[in-house]
Amino acid sequence: MVQDILEECCFNFGCLWLPEVLKARSCECVESIELTRWTRILFRHYKDLPPLATTEIPGVTFREVLFRTHQIRHTAVHRRLASVSEIEKMIENAVSLTIVLKDALQTRKIETIQREVEVKIEELRRVQNELEVRMSAELAMIAQRRKLLDEFEKKAIDLTLSEGNQNRLRVGSGLDGFLIKGQKCTESGVQHPEKMRHAKGDDAPLKLEDLEGTISSTAGRTTTEQDTP
Known about the structure:
The chain is mainly α. It has two domains: 2-126, no CATH class; 181-219, no CATH class. Helix content is 76%, strand content 0%. The protein has helices at 2-17, 19-24, 35-44, 62-67, 70-77, 84-100, 104-187, 193-200, 208-227. The chain is rod-shaped.
């Protein structure tokens, strides 16, 4: 839309100040010459224009005003995505061209578009800010939950390690008791399982019946000794 307005602006300017050029190019309607060609034509014949044909924008040359509009056509033709700042800048450049060519009607058209775009951009920024605020809140909540999960994980690890240590102490204490009892049995005459194994032969497996028989035999001898006066 902005490109169409600028092409109409250039066509009106050409009809007013460069009619011979339009006639030589058989240009009879707005669609006859595209925007980028118009900028080259206007720049080429700028020196032939009377001083009152154009107006100046402080700090910007006529050439800069013309060729800054090329991005508008490039974006429209190639359907290139533009950022918000790029869109704002392109509209500003379009307004500048209509001002330089002194086309008040086209200036008002583009300024109307500019105001509508500003409203849309403001709405876009507002929604974007709301989304960012919501995302920040959600990320903060996730970070808090992650912190709690880390604490739960640490507590679970500490509890597992503590219970594991207690279990090892319990098992170790039971083994110590078993070994002490085994030593007492050996001292009272019961052969240690390893001695019984050596007595039967290194390769002979030690059976439970052998240990029970040894204990029974020892118990019998002890009883006999107690009964003898």
